[in-house]
Amino acid sequence: xxxxxxxxxxxxEDDVVIAAMYKNFLSEEPMALTHVDTxxxxxxxxxxxxxxxxxxxxxxxxxxxxxxxxxxxxQQLGCTIIVITMESSIDIxxxxxxxxxxxxxxxxFQKNRxxxxxxxxxxxxxxxxxxxxxxxxxxxxxxxxxxxxSKRMQALYQIIDHVAASKASVLITGESGTGKExxxxxxxxxxQRSAQPFITLDCTAIPKDLIESQLFGHVKGAFTGAVxxxxxxxxxxxxxxxxxxxxxxxxxxxxxxxxxxxQTGTFYKVGGEKEEKxxxxxxxxxxxxxxxEIEAGQFREDLYYRIxxxxxxxxxxxxxxxxxxRLARVFLKKYxxxxxxxxxxxxxxxxxxxxxxxxxxxxxxxxxxxxNIVVLHEGxxxxxxxxxxxLNETLVTDSNAxxxxxxxxxxxxxxxxxxxxxxxxxxxxxxxxxxxxxxxDGNVVQAAKLLKLSKSSIxxxxxxxKTTNTP
Length: 471
What we know:
alpha/beta, Rossmann fold, 4 domains, 5-stranded parallel β-sheet, 18 helices
């Protein structure tokens, strides 16, 4: 029997015209497609063949496609599923993800969206198979600057192991504070370029009119203030790795030049006429939804496909709670040494609170909380009295009980209020905003998310209070 090395993809779609369109979209991709038009035909196919991926339409004539999805997960068949539906409902998307779907596509969608989503699914499936088959892997409780021995972190370490050897561009996504820069550094350190430069460009830290100069460099006299020629990060990273942090913030005009640079490896300095060529491995990161940015016209679709060759999604801390106490102990030891304090551990009540809190700021927030406690308190053990807001708000009358969800910093309790403790609303608002910014270690964007405000509103209010000290 002749074997086929191409990944197998099953298309479950009752409309033969749409199925033919999918086949046409994917005709040039290295995969073997099989089409069935009913749920029963899909289940029959799965009885003798396990595909690598399934494009599953939920609106089938003989059964609900969600039942097929649940059946596949219950049997642990190991194939990656992309759900397709006409229905515009976030509830359906959430339910599909809960049942194990890899991604969710709503009809109609663009050809490139299907190709990218399916290729990402197949790539993730391939990496999962490698991880499962690697019997020599030893469980690690840390990996470079990452800390954690949960299954999610073990999977992340394995993915980094495998992608580090490639020159392919990597896009790291995840919530703020999950360690996207640590991931980029780990890929670099594990790669064959580890002896070469690792250069970072934070796209949020540089004014838009200067970022092109920072990226490509400039010649003397290129603009006001350019008193001498200067190399950009593209030149400095030659032979090594260039990490573009928060790439979703990059101006559209510069995105076009970055795309050309990634495609050709060549660029021009600002004001220069000589084309320069370098050898750079690209790693990008963002906490934005770039597909939504593309829809809004804020990010180039062709650049997205160029940077998203290997996607890595970092898990939120609440998704691997088993690592929280290990992280907390490492941070406690570190800051106790720095501050020359005798802290050795946590009470059981504090450990309970740390484990049950949702950590919207993820590992960065946990680190900041531990540092705050060590700096402001003395002792050998961290107690509940030392916890900063909002962690101390999880305490209830029963010392062994923990509130399942922590209220946001701006939530106010008016129970038992009296004229003596009622204050002007602007003062309460000012304190809530300042506390949220302090809690987020000065990150106004993160504080705005917690407070459900726009960052521009916060900046406006801060400026107003700074100049007038009144509402």
